[in-house]
Specification:
The complex is a heterodimer of chains A (297) and B (310). By secondary structure, chain A is mainly α. In chain A, 73% of the residues lie in helices and 0% in strands. In chain B, 79% of the residues lie in helices and 0% in strands. The model of chain B is unreliable at 304-310 (pLDDT under 50). Classes of the chains: A mainly alpha (297), B mainly alpha (310). The interface between A and B is large, with 41 and 48 residues.
Amino acid sequence: MASWIRALASRTAESASGETAPRLDLSGAVGVLMIAVVIIAAILAPIAAPHDPNAQDLMGRLKPPGWQSPFGGGRFLLGTDQLGRDVLSRIIYGSRISLFVGIVSVAITAAIGTMLGLVAGYYRGVAESIVMRCVDLVMSLPFMLLALAVIGITGPGIRNLVLVVVLTRWARYTRVIYGQTLSYSEREFVEAARVIGSSSPRILFQHLLPNLLPSTIVLATLDLGFVIVLESGLSFLGLGVPPTVPTWGTMLSDGRAYLNTAWWMGTFPGMAIMITVLGFNLLGDWIRDRMDPTLRV
Amino acid sequence: MFKYVIRRLLYAMLTVLGVVTIVFILQRTTGDPIAVLLPADVPLEEQARFRAILGLDQPLHIQYVKFLMGMVRGDLGYSYRQGAPALTLVLERVPPTLKLAAAGMAIAIAIGLPAGVLAAVNRGTALDRLVMSSALVGQAMPVYWTGILLILLLSVRLRWLPAIGYGGVKSLIMPALAVGSYSAARIARMTRSSMLDVLRMDYVRTARSKGLNNRSVVVGHALRNALIPIVTVLGMEFGSLMGGSVIVETVFAWPGVGRLAVNAIMGRDYPVVQAVVIVVSAIFVLINLGVDLTYGLLDPRISIANSRKR
């Protein structure tokens, strides 16, 4: 493992010696801060949430945010929903689903996509044509439509959400890693490894993979925001997680029905999504500029 | 050129065939439509009869061939819920979705392009930073949330526009803004970086030293060349716009393909889901084909015939 960290560090050093604007560092730091807040909220949800996210109180339904209500202000900082549940607590618990689905599915997708790209680029031949034709196919379709098709057929649920992400996003990793594997395979260090009799798996995992991991990490970070938007979108449509689990998407879907009376229900969960996605995008841009500016699209 | 068009057309057809196959396999390997269509207490003989009517009792490869033959004839099966041909149901809903996506695209270009040019020309100034930060935020906002915020502002608070519905220009404004905002952010970022590349070129310096005013240098010389990479991406952007429409349609009760798909998924109306996927991917592939073919027209340096020989 140490070798890829070294590869990463040397790249970072390379680009750091070049032109780097201080503004970039600032935005990277802002990104880290935003993500840190969300992750801490998700981990500490039972402590951080002021109320039970599922505790209903029909007498206290549709209470406006704390600063807007003249009496009893502050008990519900971001107001309550149509069943009297605390919006803030539900947002805090909702971060768990978004982060869980995001991180798990992106990790699986990145692993599969990277392996396929590695195999296609190293072995060439039949593996290459099959894998790359599939990449072309997946990349030539609107991604939301693919997601709907998969959910439409498999049905909603967290497991199927992960499946959707894997099936629709792997090709992005494969395409980039494939190209890089092609060019690395012709470099001396791979030649040398082959000459001294290293086995193919050894070349793949010891020599090629460490050089490709930085790209995978950049792609994965940038993908996280995208996947979180997808998850919340499908939950919004009622095609994500079961409606009993608090998620940002289902909260917005509830909020849509009460736009005339309870603006807070349709506003704050979206803000949570925006902050999380913005955080991952800022962090991803920053890592990319430091590690591998060639990935910029 | 002719050979290239044929090749691309064949490839487009193969892509759609791939989609059809994936949909077919996924659908036949997961879940039993009979379990959805009939109540649980229906006797087994009755279930078998129903299965035979739908052709689900035959081996998979026969079903697949029948399915493809039907597709060639334009028969994608009947909706389980509405009894109408699935293809007809989908085609009825295509125009509203295309209208929404096209309006969204128009808005995205109208906002994104000038914003990107302004940011590039005023690089490093407060204006540049404002545009780029807005673009970052715009890219982080889910389109359906943008839609909700627009309803809150323009309908609930200001009472300018109808919150939901279909018909007339007024009802189109908010959905199109919601769908277009995300693409506007992407186009702004792309235009800025593309413009910055071009503004560094020698011919831009030459144009300036000839004494041309800033405006004609930026619009006449720089933008024209900066547009080339942007136009290519617009084809792909249209795909994400159509994807965005799918969700935004639900927010605004817009009678498009997206809402049809969501309702069909909820009701396990597989033939309709299938027809939506096939029709929309066909549209998408055709649009990209069109973009590819016009690419050479935009930039005389890119000759398709030459690129094939390389």
